[in-house]
Amino acid sequence: ANWNAAASGAGAPLMMVLGQDDELGPGLLARYLAAMVEVPDAVACSSGEVWIDDDGREVAVPRRPNRRERIFRAQRRYVLDQTTLVALCLRNGQVYGEPSAVLFRRSAFEAVGGYRAEMGHVADLDLDLRLAGQGPVLYLTEALVRRRLHGGMATASQQASGETAAARERLHEAWIGHPGLSDHDRDRARAALVSWAARDVVKALLRRRSAVAREQAGVVWRHRRVRPRALAENVAELVTGANRDAR
To answer: Is the pTM of this model over 0.70?
Structure first.
């Protein structure tokens, strides 16, 4: 609701919702605008990221296989349609861009009705996917967004409470029926959901968060019908660090 309230005050044709922790890197807006001029029907633009500490110094974070720099590798700019983005994000999570990374057209935002409050922690990704239904979205591989990493960030508290894990299933259920997805896309998405939930069960038990563990065990049970091949892909990625969706 607060993101929609902030967006309602925008009067320009292009807008973004910048988190209080994050910074726009040097040249970000110029590069975004240039890309959207080159692809005039694009409705949004995002980019790579670097992480910074409270003093603005760059810090290293774990390079998990589903991080977006592991996926968008071969080109400086990608033009993505909705089906491609849905398939990538159901399997890998938020690989397009958090609110501080995404510049979008106000007309497209209004056309899809803004953020859906019921999506909770994944309302930003849900918006990205719906925006992509209005036209192509752009992704620039250059790390232009500076995201703040600290213990008090909202993402950390949402992970601890189990909201991040619950929202993951919410997003899955909202988008798994997208007509552009193949049966293989859906199987890979289910495998990812089950893998994440199983990991969260272990993490919750180690941290004595029994309610979160029970909830995520339920996710594993509800979505357990996954082909071994799809689960094997996830295991291979964890071992090698190479994402099968890299392009």
So the answer is: yes
